[in-house]
Amino acid sequence: MNQFSTTLSSDQVPLLKRCLENLDFVCEEKNSVLIAKNQGIRITVYKTNKVLFQGAETDKWVVKLAAQGFIEKTPLLKSAGLPQGYSGPRIGSDESGKGDYFGPLVTVAAFVDSESESRLRDIGVRDSKELSDKAIKVMAADIKSLVTWKIVTVGPERYNELYDKMKNLNKLLGWSHARALEDVLNVKECNLAITDQFGDEKFVRDSLMTKGREINLIQMPRAESDIAVASASIIAREAYLTGLESLSREMGIDDLPKGASSKVIDKGIEIATKYGFDKLRYVAKLHFRTTIQIRAGVGLV
Questions:
Q1: Sequence-distant (≥ 6) Cβ neighbours of residue 66 within 8 angstroms
Q2: Which segments within 116-265 are labelled E, that is strand?
Q3: Lower Cβ count inside 10 Å, N or C end of the chain?
Q4: What is the pLDDT of residues 150-187, one digit of tens each?
Q5: Are the CB atoms for 191 and 212 separated by under 8 Å?
């Protein structure tokens, strides 16, 4: 999308100008027409309050300004940042397992365009948190057949190695999102990517390689409300659930639970007592506070 137009209220126009100036736009007024310029983008505000976006960076700035309330937004499945009617090509990425003590961290990037978006809407795609595990497993299979997607799975042992090295969960998440995005970009051309806002954009940006550094990367709260991110979240959650089940079988441990509840602590104590505390490195994310509680439970504190 190299051009986009919308109409503001009279009250919004001065607010938009102030916002653009704060975002390092060069603004000038000619014949009561406001022209704001930045790298790759020109925004013109006419006397009628019509706003015209033009340039290679149109996608990026439309999304950013929509997130700040200057462009009308639609409810669920149109992102909190994407403008009404936007159905252009984009990559959505999301992770699963971040808040689960046991099991892998799974990150998925999914490419969606107007054709696949329509079909995804028809099958009821929405944020994976709103779906049961059973529904996720069924819907993930349908989504995989409709979108181009790539997955990065980090098992507990590798996760603990990376965390010990990076010392920061957001760095690890940034790395995994960047790998998934790059893998999709290797097979699909796209200039817009959307991820959930889990930290500074630099965590993803700094981990991107050649193709990824050319993309307009948008991080925003509740990104799962966009259908591309929602699709990625469902595939990722299905892969996490499958990975947790596989890990249970491989390690000979019955029913590793999700989350980080008291049930998880009890299972951790059971594993540490039966197999030794070191066994947890192969099934759990050790930097969680849960590990301290398990250590206390087996008398190691």
A1: 72, 73, 81, 82, 83
A2: 148-154, 192-196, 216-220
A3: C
A4: 999 999 999 999 999 999 999 999 999 999 999 999 99
A5: no
Q: Computed from CA positions of residues 84, 85, 90, 95, in that sequence, does the dihedral angle turn out positive or negative? A: positive
> How far, in Å, CA of 93 to CA of 45, rounded?
33
- Mention every residue, 6+ apart, whose C-beta is less than 8 A from residue 95: 105, 106, 107, 108, 173, 176, 177, 236
All residue ranges of the chain with pLDDT < 50 are 73-80
Distance between CA atoms of 95 and 24, rounded to whole angstroms?
A: 32
Q: Are the beta carbons of 120 and 211 closer than 8 angstroms?
A: no
Burial group, residue 81, by CB count within 10 angstroms (0-12, 13-18, 19+): buried
Q: Which residue has the tokens 């951790």?
A: 268
Partners of residue 109 on adjacent β-strands: 93, 150
Is 78 within 8 Å of 66 (Cβ atoms)?
A: no
- Pairing of the two strands 148-154 and 192-196: unpaired
Query: So what's the pLDDT on residue 136?
Result: 94
Residue 297 burial (CB count, 10 A): 16
pLDDT at 74: 35
